[in-house]
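[09:14] KT: can someone run the structure on this one? pasting the chain below
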Amino acid sequence: MQGADAAAVADALDSGDPLPGTGGFAGDVDGTLVRDVLGRYPLFVERDVAEEGRLGHDQWGHDPAALEDPRSFPAGHVRDGDGTRRRFTLPSPDPFPDRETAVEAVQAAVETSVDAVDTDGLAIAFSGGVDSALLAARLDAPLYVAGFPDSHDVEAARSAADLLGTDVRVAELTHDAIERAVPEIARATGRVNAMDVQIALPLYLAAERVAADGFDRLALGQGADELFGGYAKVAKAPEDPRVDADTVRGAQREVVATLPDQLERDVLALRAAGVEPVTPLLHDRVVGAALRLDGDLLVDGETRKVALRAAARESLPDEIADRDKKAAQYGSLAARELDRLARQAGYKRRMDNHVTKYIEALIE
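[09:31] RB: done, structure tokens below
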């Protein structure tokens, strides 16, 4: 069992509580396979095994490379002698009664979860935004950012580190590093589509530098954008065609449902680079608080992650608490430069999926 004590997972299975106070889990409990409701730890089974009966130890695992034909085991599900079925579903709690109560609850959940992180062997992935800055302000661990020298993320991380009175180590991206890393990421994650590889690139290359410097755990602010309303498509609901929901709160739940697929990719990429991810903002207590936020505490006008920013002011200067950030693949310039490499190799933008085709060529 990864992520939580087997006894705690057994209790959750008995009760059906989807948020039993853990940071996620996946594995076997007394012959029952289980993966938590947000899929915070990867779990795979052989694709062609019969749906009836329990799985043998050679028919499932946490690393898809260890199986002949793996498929992802769905988040929130169990597999026992009766087959595979859903056991956990995210709750739909009523919103907090008022803004003050909501911000206090978010602050308590975030600070408790971050402060509980063991800093032994730990480094922090630091973009200079509010999510990673909360980790940096409350944990005694070195900061790392990945990006090309002129990238937004490198500049933002350095300026935020100055405001926090510390420094940040830069894992400088190069074309050679990208060309080397792309096949490694594709093999580790089993994915070759451009978006997945672009997202994983700065994480993987930062993690490589972290591992080379002697650290084996990497803390990240993952989950904050999904939980607290950090995406433009959530802010613009229901007008944005990228979400089906007709409210901001509904759009929040819609993007939270994408976490299992995203986290699987990121965990596999980081492990392949030599570190274990640590994600305190995805602890059950933080998830539970975020699901109780009303729409105006997620997005208010042009401001996203309203409640999280308000809660962060106890730990961060206003200049950092109020900052917007770019997605890592864009802020690091990894996506731009991977596209440039694809075009230089003859995969022009007029071709369908030209970057994905370039990635497939690198693997071959």
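[09:33] KT: thanks! The chain has a mean pLDDT of 93.
[09:34] RB: yep, looked fine to me
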